[in-house]
């Protein structure tokens, strides 16, 4: 991942160095605007990718790093990128000077679109050998991009920073017995059904951050995050530890 993070930034630097080296060959203002705007869009998307790889690298030593905000921020960047890409087409067309310049501008723009798809939709980078990508396309085995998964796993509940005790006290959290859910058959961690709205997060607790699934669970018109433990086994942190009684009237959700 370090190579990916550094590689994207190096690519941006190389692009702009070449741009300024060959700038003198761009003889009109319209040509300059057309090429530079396309290059800006591509560079902007590459920087987003580099930052995301840096976040994933940080999560190796600090699980859950920036998990609360990353998906939401990148969802907004995804929309902003689409707007910029649409503007790019208009900028290229409105600043037409020569056919050659237009071809170069659209070529840079197309590469920007490919980078956007690679980051926000489907992973297109698997190997330096293009045959590998072609094979994945033919077999329809392209994977969803990591940023796409990050966006899907973002959630609107402001529960990070709360301990389980505080969340329970504020009636925002429902503790679910992992062994009694479809996600953990036979007491072993499972995966939520496809197209479900469950998000994998690291929830803070007195025993450290614990990976678990969270979703909006509606009861009596109110929504609460439902938590299913994924590690430390059944009872790793249970009712008895904090004196919680799920059968108590005060805990009726």
TrEMBL record:
Write the record's keywords in alphabetical order, separated by commas.
Answer: Membrane, Transmembrane, Transmembrane helix
User: Where are the membrane-spanning stretches?
Assistant: 9-33, 39-58, 79-112
From which domain of life does this come? Bacteria
Name by which UniProt lists this protein: Uncharacterized protein
Organism this protein belongs to: Leptotrichia wadei (strain F0279)
């Amino acid at each position: 991942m370090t190579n990916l993070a550094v590689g994207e930034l190096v690519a941006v630097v190389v692009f702009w160095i070449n741009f300024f080296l060959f700038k003198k060959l761009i003889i009109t203002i319209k040509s300059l605007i057309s090429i530079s705007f396309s290059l800006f869009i591509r560079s902007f998307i590459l920087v987003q990718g580099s930052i995301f790889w840096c976040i994933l690298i940080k999560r190796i030593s600090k699980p859950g790093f920036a998990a609360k905000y990353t998906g939401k921020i990148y969802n907004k960047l995804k929309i902003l990128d689409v707007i910029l890409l649409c503007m790019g087409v208009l900028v290229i067309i409105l600043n037409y000077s020569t056919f050659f310049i237009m071809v170069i501008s659209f070529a840079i723009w197309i590469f920007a679109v490919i980078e956007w798809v690679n980051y926000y939709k489907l992973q297109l980078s698997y190997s330096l050998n293009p045959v590998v990508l072609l094979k994945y396309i033919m077999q329809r085995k392209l994977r969803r991009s990591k940023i796409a998964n990050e966006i899907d796993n973002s959630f609107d509940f402001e529960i990070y920073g709360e301990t389980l005790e505080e969340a329970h006290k504020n009636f925002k959290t429902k503790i679910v017995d992992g062994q009694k859910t479809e996600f953990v058959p036979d007491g072993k961690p499972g995966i939520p059904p496809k197209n479900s709205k469950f998000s994998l997060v690291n929830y803070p607790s007195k025993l450290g951050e614990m990976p678990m699934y969270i979703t909006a669970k509606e009861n009596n018109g109110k929504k609460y995050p439902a938590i299913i433990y994924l590690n430390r086994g059944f009872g790793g942190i249970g009712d008895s530890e904090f004196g919680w009684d799920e059968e108590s009237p005060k805990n009726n959700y």
